[in-house]
Each structure stands twice: as structure tokens, then as C-alpha cells.
Design goal:
The protein is mostly helical. The protein has helices at 6-25, 35-46, 50-65, 69-87, 94-112, 114-124, 126-139, 141-173. It starts with 5 loop residues before the first helix and ends with a helix.
Amino acid sequence: MKKITVRDITLIGMMVAVIEVCKAALSFLPNIELTTFWLILFTLYFGRKILLVIPVFILIEGCIYGFGLWWVMYLYMWPLLVLLVWIFKKHGSVWFFSTLSGLFGLFFGFFCAIPYVVIGAWDGGIQNGLYAGFTWWVAGIPWDIVHGVGNFVLMLVLYHPVRRVMERMKSRWT
């Protein structure tokens, strides 16, 4: 990456602020969030700058909500999403990104079960670890379904209008 400018720092701050404000605004709805939507769009439009947004976002989340086990999950879940978007960024279709967003929400709990597997295995062997992770994941499946459907619908509805605005503003941001 080239030298980070004041404009870059401002843009990164604005991206994190948009994510945090949207997260707070929708916090009354269980497992409905715009974080996935914004990280996908920001990755598509701002490229490598997203690599600075992710750690700032994760750190702020920890400062606001505490540094619990859920925070460890954020350390790999959000970078995983950005990596997937980066790999498939040429698939500019709303349907592709709606599906990716939906699948990410649907499997969020599955991937977040990894620390429970590790802790359970550390404490009582691999069998106990797998049991701990599996039960934690299965208990959350209804919420993962809500998460996946919410992500899919939000991306499907918001992708084109937000993309048009971002296209108009892109020359001012870069």
C-alpha cells in the first residue's frame, strides 16, 4: 500500500462510523445487521483501504462491547468476508453478492463455533471440543437462518441504490 494520507484516514474513519451507526440503529433487531453489506460494498469500492477498516472496526467493537470470546470470532470472521469478496469481486451481480451475504450470515454461527471446539478440546479432549462446538452451533441455527435471510434481503434491496450513490461519489473519495 502507498503512503496513508489524511484523506485515507478520514475515509477509513467514515467507513467505520457508517458501520457502527448502522449496527447501533439495527441493534433492536436480533441478527439483522448491515455490517456485512457495508464490508462487501467498501471492499468493492475502496479496495485495499478495507484492510485498515477491519482492524479499526474490530477494535472499536471490543472497546464498546468488551473483549469476550465473541470478539475473538470477529478477528477471523470479518477478514474472511473481505477475503471472499476480494476473490470474487469480478462477479458484480446483485444476485451473487446477495447470495454470498446470505450464506455468510447462514454459516456465521458455524464458523463462530471454532473457539468452542478449541476450548472444549483443550479442557476435555477433541471429542468434548467437537461436542461443545457442535451444540453451540446447533443451538444458534434459528438465529443463523434469520441472519442469512436478513443479509440476503438487505443486499438485494440496498445494493443498487447504494452502488449508484457510491459510483457518483467515487471520484471525490479516491
